[in-house]
Amino acid sequence: MRQVDVLIVGAGPAGATAALNLAPLRSVAVIERSAVPSPRIGESLPGAARRLFRDMGLLDSFLAEGHTPCYANRSVWGTPEPQELDSLRDPDGPGWHLDRARFERWLREAAVDRGAEILAPAKVVQLERVSDGWRIDVERDSGVTTTHAALIID
After folding, report:
1. pTM metric for this prediction
2. What letters, b where the CB count within 10 A reaches 16 and e where it falls short, cover 85-123?
3. Per-residue pLDDT tens digits for 51-97
């Protein structure tokens, strides 16, 4: 039985970021149903993310990925009228238009570089609370394995 401190379900931006921050301190495994991230359109990231990447020691690596700067956005969200937001007065500067699949691959790689294990493709087939954490049965192409985790992040 595999033993980990933290099991994270999902290797999207939130799951991969949790994994890359926890992995230097704890044993971490991430379960993800897709072996590779799927393409998405219209993804962007605000300039405030620059501070987070710097705090995580990832700013230079993120900038090297070459995502296109985003100086303004126009969107229709919740009302019929388009809303515009620019970064001219934003102290964090412009954000980025993301190649979402590439961004997710980069985050997964950063998590692995810091010690996380990514199980993909995989899915949880059974989950049980036990006295000292969680017992999780994980299905992969090679069959079902059991993992014990003190904590689960979903």
Report:
1. 0.91
2. eebeeeeeebbbbbbbeebbbbbbebbbebebbbbbebe
3. 999 999 999 999 999 999 999 988 888 899 999 888 888 999 999 99
